[in-house]
């Protein structure tokens, strides 16, 4: 420490603010970090949280709250809502509304409202000391904070929680002269801010894996506000999700005009004098046949996954082990890292779902354990989720493929139904991708292993069913449940056709 201080003193612009002691220091003020620090403070712990946003390649930064409120779930869902309203306006005429004149979407109005919402969502928990400072570990009990003005301090703590999340992955497989070329790609918030500013009615998403759900969601919401969106997919869409459901989701998007370039890998992006971006890519048709293609786009959005934000944290030096493949922090079931008083939660932790509610819950439970109030561990099984594509897809539990590989094809029973949401009838909307599927253990009481739904308000539907799946729902219990009529969710309680039977699974009548 003394040697470090002497080093800092030589660096004239660094002002040292002294050392402060806490029960808990949290590095990262996003979903997990804020939830953890709030809970710990409420339980009487002396807590500090350090949060600092490293500007993106385009120089975009944002405030406290992390990915979810600033560049993730919240702006994405609000944009999705904007797109849904567009569909509702299309439907409205058929329900008797007269909408005067052609309607159009104003990007900037939306952006203003969304930004206000993000500020509303996020504040520092009471009784938590907040530092807008970049944190790193000096040793297992000492955190160094350095802010943008060069003010430095050290904080010592009994326990340290790392909740630094992740950042977008940059394309590295393709030829890029310098970072300026990467800037042509648009990332997250920058996307939300800049697509329309290109002023073209053309926006395409370069996605070397719409396997990443965010890629599909972005394409869907851009198409939903009237932009011309294309998606480039290297292999499959929504990797890790049930592939039949993924095909329904992309099939619906294709039917509504989003173009998909399947089996394609981008090779370069160049800015033309016109300001448009020339994208070149390889279409892999087979092991022997590859076709080089190119086209111009007004915007390119990379949605090729995220990398854990561990840079500059000094983790290996203090003994915190990183996963050799993912670079995430290796954690035990109690979120403990390889250093016993240092913990990691949320997107930065290895093997955890990259979702806000899991980061929040893990943070709260950890705070309770650290305060000696509970022994409860976070249960990462049967975490429900929803993909907010134009046709939403919600699920909980195993995909059909995972159930097959875990139990064997003959040992699972898959019930399914194609249904038509009532609201689609008068509106004459295509319902061919609205589908429910329940994957059960075939033996005994037919425990539900996975539940899948495409259709309106999928998140709202699946949230309720997730409780029952966690409680050990069986097929008989599902069938004994009285549905709410007329809803889409009731289709899950009526489901009775098995895939094995080969019978037509289309729901007819009321
Ligand atoms: P974050 O929320 O990312 O917070 C980490 C914070 O730590 C950031 O503020 C970061 O700047 C800061 N930080 C990093 N390094 C340091 C350092 N050295 N010192 C100080 N501060 C530092 N999840 C859902 O559940 N539902 C969704 O619909 C959904 N949609 C998404 C859409 C998009 C476009 C994206 C990108 C993500 C989405 N997610 C969604 C995922 C969700 O946002 C993340 O899982 C969640 O935010 C992770 O929380 P976290 O606390 O781990 O990290």
TrEMBL record:
GO terms for molecular function: flavin adenine dinucleotide binding; glutathione-disulfide reductase (NADPH) activity; thioredoxin-disulfide reductase (NADPH) activity. Transmembrane segments: none annotated. Its cofactor is FAD. Pfam families: Pyr_redox_2, Pyr_redox_dim. One of its GO terms (biological process) is cell redox homeostasis. One of its GO terms (cellular component) is mitochondrion. InterPro entries: FAD/NAD-bd_sf, FAD/NAD-binding_dom, FAD/NAD-linked_Rdtase_dimer_sf, GSHR/TRXR-like, Pyr_nucl-diS_OxRdtase_dimer, Pyr_OxRdtase_I_AS, Thioredoxin/glutathione_Rdtase. NCBIfam families: TGR (TIGR01438). Belongs to the class-I pyridine nucleotide-disulfide oxidoreductase family. This is thioredoxin-disulfide reductase (NADPH). It comes from Electrophorus electricus. The lineage of its organism: Eukaryota, Metazoa, Chordata, Craniata, Vertebrata.
């Amino acid at each position: 420490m003394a040697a470090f201080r002497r080093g800092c003193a030589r660096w004239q612009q660094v002002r040292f603010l002294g050392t402060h002691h806490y029960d808990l220091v949290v590095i990262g003020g996003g979903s997990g970090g804020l939830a953890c620090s709030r809970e710990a403070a409420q339980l009487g712990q002396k807590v500090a949280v350090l949060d600092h946003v490293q500007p993106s390649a385009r120089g975009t930064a944002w405030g406290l709250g992390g990915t979810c409120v600033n560049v993730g779930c919240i702006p994405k869902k609000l944009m999705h809502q904007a797109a849904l309203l567009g569909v509702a306006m299309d439907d409205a005429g058929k329900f008797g509304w007269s909408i005067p004149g052609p309607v159009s979407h104003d990007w900037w109005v939306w952006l203003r409202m969304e930004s206000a919402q993000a500020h509303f969502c996020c504040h520092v928990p009471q009784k938590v000391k907040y530092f807008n400072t970049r944190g790193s570990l000096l040793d297992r009990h000492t955190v160094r904070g350095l802010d943008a003005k060069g003010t430095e301090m050290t904080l010592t703590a009994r326990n340290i929680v790392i909740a630094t999340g992740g950042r977008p992955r940059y394309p590295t497989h393709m030829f890029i002269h310098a970072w300026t070329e990467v800037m042509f790609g648009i990332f997250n918030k920058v996307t939300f801010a800049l697509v329309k500013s290109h002023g073209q009615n053309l926006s395409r998403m370069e996605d070397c894996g719409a396997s990443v759900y965010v890629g599909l969601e972005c394409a869907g919401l851009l198409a939903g506000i009237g932009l011309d969106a294309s998606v480039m997919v290297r292999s499959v869409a929504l990797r890790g999700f049930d592939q039949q459901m993924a095909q329904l989701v992309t099939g619906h998007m294709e039917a509504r005009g989003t173009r998909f370039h399947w089996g394609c890998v981008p090779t370069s992006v160049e800015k033309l004098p016109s300001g448009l971006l020339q994208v070149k890519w390889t279409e892999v048709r087979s092991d022997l046949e590859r076709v080089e293609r190119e086209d111009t786009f007004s915007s390119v959005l990379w949605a090729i996954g995220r990398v854990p934000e561990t840079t500059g944290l000094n983790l290996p030096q203090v003994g915190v082990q990183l996963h050799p493949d993912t670079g995430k922090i290796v954690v035990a079931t109690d979120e403990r890292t390889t250093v016993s008083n240092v913990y990691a939660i949320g997107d930065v932790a290895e093997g955890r779902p990259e979702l806000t509610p899991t980061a929040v819950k893990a943070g709260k439970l950890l705070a309770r354990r650290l305060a000696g109030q509970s022994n409860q561990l976070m249960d990462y099984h049967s975490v429900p989720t929803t993909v907010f594509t134009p046709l939403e897809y919600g699920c909980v539990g195993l995909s059909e493929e995972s159930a097959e590989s875990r139990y064997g094809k003959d040992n699972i029973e898959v019930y399914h139904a194609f249904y038509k949401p009532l609201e689609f009838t008068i509106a004459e909307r295509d319902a061919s991708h609205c589908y429910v599927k329940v994957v059960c253990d075939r033996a005994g009481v037919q425990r539900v292993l996975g539940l899948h739904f495409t259709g309106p308000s999928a998140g709202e539907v699946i949230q309720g069913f997730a409780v029952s799946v966690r409680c050990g729902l069986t097929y008989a219990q599902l069938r004994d449940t009285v549905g709410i009529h007329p809803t889409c969710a009731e289709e899950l309680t009526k489901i009775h056709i098995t895939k094995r039977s080969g019978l037509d699974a289309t729901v007819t009548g009321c």
